[in-house]
Design brief:
Strand order of the largest sheet: 3-4-5-6-8-7
Distance between the termini: 68 Å
Shape: globular
Structural class: alpha+beta
Radius of gyration: 19 Å
Number of helices: 4
Number of strands: 9
Length: 162
């Protein structure tokens, strides 16, 4: 009986879906430690995700979320090997068609939890959204973060475009 139970448990573990990894409970997790898993998670959520490297050699994912161009930057990576990253930053840049002021950015930041909007000297608008993943966050939590980022981009987009 114990052998049958062990074989069933091993089979279930082998068949469990993996994105960036699975916890011992079998839950699918997403982690900046595994950039390819983050890209797969985005693709499984229906978004484009192209894995690349930034100017420092750290992982980078170019994506299109809800019709908006964005990128996922990887942070807290090993300086030499560029792996072992611990967090992600979603980034979207906008070139406004409507006037968007520093006061607008402050209001947006106050009203949009987790987002940070800044203005550049050329009046371009950048929104960032940080997610600490450590060794892994639940796929549903990651999906919620992506949805919230998309919603924030939709809101900002209506403020900066006609």
């Amino acid at each position: 009986m114990k052998v049958r139970w062990l074989l069933a448990a091993l089979a279930a573990t082998a068949l469990a879906p993996t994105v960036a990894g699975a916890t011992t409970s079998g839950a699918v997790t997403v982690s900046a430690v595994k950039p390819d898993g983050v890209a797969v998670a985005l693709q499984n959520l229906g978004y484009k995700a192209e894995l690349a490297k930034d100017a420092n050699g750290d992982p980078l994912i170019n994506t299109d979320i809800g019709g908006w161009q964005a990128a996922l930057l990887f942070y807290e990576c090993n300086e030499k090997t560029h792996d072992g990253c611990q967090s992600l930053q979603f980034v979207a840049n906008f070139t406004p068609e409507k006037k968007f002021t520093a006061d607008d950015a402050v209001r947006f930041n106050r009203n949009t939890r987790f987002a940070s909007v800044s203005l550049d000297k050329d009046q371009s608008v950048m929104m960032t959204w940080d997610v600490v993943t450590g060794k892994g966050i639940d796929l549903e939590v990651f999906s919620n973060a992506v949805d919230m980022f998309r919603s924030a981009m939709d809101t900002l987009g209506t403020e900066v475009f006609k």
